[in-house]
Amino acid sequence: MDFLREDLSLYEDAQIGAAVRSIHENCRKAVDRYFLPEPIMKQAEGETVEVAAGFDRHAVKLVGNVVGQPPFTGILRHRGWQLRSVNLPKLSEAENPNLIAPAEVEIQ
What we know:
- By secondary structure, this protein is an alpha+beta fold.
- It has two helices and four strands, in the order ααββββ.
- The protein has helices at 2-5, 13-34, and strands spanning 35-39, 48-51, 72-75, 81-86.
- The longest helix is centred in the N-terminal third of the chain and has 22 residues, at 13-34.
């Protein structure tokens, strides 16, 4: 949360770059631990794809010159993501689920 709430406009790009590597790695580990994401479309970005009639408009966003009725043919610009499964730990009833991270106080 500290990283996400910090104003990064105060830093040069080179200063941010090194910090982002470890944050990216830790975020990826957290996603892999609790979620199983998979692409909505299996084809590679940049490939020509066909979007059939009856497609899920929440899962596939058509952009560009969209006219007529499906099937549509276009270039896949982003594969999209969906969750195959979610494995969140059961929260303890004794803990406050609204806490993200505790405050730290160093006693001198």
